[in-house]
Amino acid sequence: MPAIVPKSAAALAVAVLAAGGAVAAPIVEAAPSSTAPSEVVSPLPGTPDADPGTQISFLGAPASRLRDIVVTGSESGPNPGRLRYYSTHTGGSFLPSHQFLPGERVTVSATVVGYGAPIRTGTSFTVSSPYSLPAPAPAIAVSGTSSNMIRFHSRHDLEPPAVTVTTPASDPALGDVFVSPDSGLAQSGPMILTPSGTLVWFDPLPHGTTAFDLNLQTYQGVPVLTWWQGQVVEGHGQGVDVIENDRYTPVATVHAGNGLYADLHDFQITPQGTAWITAFAPQHADLSLLGGLRGGLIDDGVVQEIDIKTGLVMFQWDALGHVSVQDTYMRVPTIASEVLDYFHVNSIDALADGDLLVSSRNTWAVYLISETTGSVIWRLGGKRSSFSLGAGVRFAWQHDAELRPDGTISVFDNEAAPAESAQSRVLDIALNASAHAATLTSQLTYPGQGILSNSQGDAQLLPNGDDFVGWGQAGEVSEFSPAGQLTFDMHFTAPINSYRAFRYPWNAQPETQPALAVAPSGDGTPEVYASWDGATGVASWRVLAGSSPMTLTTVGTYTSQGFETAVAAPTAAAYLRVQALSAGGALLRSSAVVKS
C-alpha cells in the first residue's frame, strides 16, 4: 500500500529553533557492513516543533562513518557541538553547543563515508516555543480502611491496596498478576500478586508519586521488571522509566531526551538494548483557523527511541509533523489556560521489520509509521482511515494497540470519555491490505452489564491462548478463554485502579532481609510475624530463639501462610530470628535478630 500523506499542520503557527556543526574524535566501533545503511536523521524533515534543546540523531551508519556535520539556525547561525556514539554502534547524536531560538528554521547536513561514494544526508526542522508546564496538583489521599488497604505486623511501612478475587484462576500455573495501582491512598506503587490475590511484592512510592505500566521484559538477556514512575499532570506523565532485576535492585533509569519528560503510557525494551518510550511536547500554537485562540496551547504526541546505556535519543517522531490537528476528536479550547491534547499517544508496538504501530487516543486511530521516513504508512480508524471499517470495528478513545502473532491487531476500545457506547471492549481486527478493509474477528466484553472504562486498559495474549484484560480506570482485571469464558477475575476497591495488568511466571529473591516482628500473645508466648517482600519460593519459616543473639537454636519450622506468616512460637527466650526455607528445606535468607 502506498504511503498516505497526512494533511499539513501548517494551520498551527508553532514556534521553532536552529543549530550548527562539528564532530568529535572517533572511537573504536564494530566493523559495519559494506552495504550502505538507511540513514535516518531526526528531528525528521519538516518537524514543526523541535525542542530548543534538541539533539540531532543520526541512526543507521556507525557514528565513526559520519563526517562534516553542519548544523545551522536561520537566526542563531552555525551551532558547533560534539558527536556522541550509541552503544549499539548504529549511529550517534550530535549535541549542539547552545540551544536554538524559538521559531527559527534549522538545517542539518552530514556525509556518510565508507560505502563507496560519500552519501549526503541531513534534515531541516522548525524550533518550538514550549509553554511552561503547570505544577502537579497536590495528591488527595483516600482514607485507608480494612476494605481498601492491607496491613502487616512485620511491615508497618507497607499499606498496599486490597484486592478481591471473585473468579479463581482456572490455571494458576500461568503466573502472577502484575499491576500498578494508582489508588489515591497514601501509597501507590508497582505491585505483584498471586492469582489468589495474595501479595508477592509491593514497592511504595513517596506520596504524590505514582507508578504505571508494571511489566516483565528482557534486558541484556535476563528478565527485568519495568515501570514508569512520576507525577501525572493533565493526563500526561512527568517522570522516568525504571528497570530493576529479580533482586529488586536498580539496573537503569531511562529519561526522555530533547527537553521532554518520559510519559506514563508505554515503555518497550528492544533486544538491541534500546527503549521505545512515549512523551508529550507542550507548545504555543496559533489555533485560530480551528476556532481556537491565536495564542493557544497544544500538546504534541512524541515517540522516542532511547539508547539505554548512554541515554541518547536515537530517533524521534512528532505527531504534528505527520498527523493533522483537524483529525482530533477533542474540542478546540477557547480559554487561554486550556490545552488542546490533540493526539495523546498511548501505546507503541515496535514491529520486527522496524515499523511502529502507534495508538492515538484522541484521534481514535492506530497508525503504522515507517521508522526510516517517519511517514504514516496507513491508519486504522479515525476520520481518515486507510481501511473501510466492517461491522463492529469502529473504536473510540482506545488504548493498547498491538500486532498479534496471527497478524491481527488487538485494541482496547474504551468508548469513553465522553461515552460513545455503553461498554468497553477488547477488539481483534484483521486487515486486508489489497481490499483496504478491516474486519472484526472477535471481541470481548465484561459479563453482564459490561464495563465502561473512561481511561487506560490493555489486553495481553497468554501462552495458552487466553486474553488477560486490565480494565483500566474501572479497577477490574479479568482473563478470558479463547471461547470467551471468564477464567479469572479480581478487582480493586474504588477509586483504586491500574493502568494496565499483565500475567507472567515470576521467580525472585530480594536483596533485602526477611522482616520479623514479635508481639506478646495471651498465654505469654511470643507471636512471631515473618515476611519477605518480593520473595517467591518460600515454603516455610524456621524460628530460632535463645537467651542471647549468639545462642539461638531452632524451636520449630512452620508452613508459609503467604506474604506474612504468623506463628505462636513455643518459647520464652529473649531473642528470636526467622529463616526463609525453600520447598526442599534449603536456607534462602535469615532475618535480623529481634529482642522479644
**How many whole angstroms does the radius of gyration measure?**
27 Å
CATH topology of the largest domain: Neuraminidase
Low-confidence residue ranges: 1-32
Q: How many domain regions?
A: 3
Query: Which CATH architecture of the largest domain is right?
Result: 6 Propeller
CATH class of the largest domain: Mainly Beta
Describe the structure.
This protein has 596 residues and is mainly beta. The chain folds into 3 domains: 40-126, Sandwich (Immunoglobulin-like); 163-504, TolB, C-terminal domain (Neuraminidase, 6 Propeller), CATH 2.120.10.30; 515-595, Immunoglobulin-like (Sandwich). It is built from no helices and 43 strands. The strands form 10 sheets. It has a 5-stranded antiparallel β-sheet with strand order 9-34-33-32-31, with no helix packed on it. Strands 17, 18, 19, 20 and 21 form a 5-stranded mixed β-sheet that branches. The chain has a 5-stranded mixed β-sheet with strand order 26-30-29-28-27, with no helix packed on it. A hairpin with a 5-residue loop joins strand 36 and strand 37 (526-531). The radius of gyration is 27 Å and the shape is globular. The model is unreliable at 1-32 (pLDDT under 50).
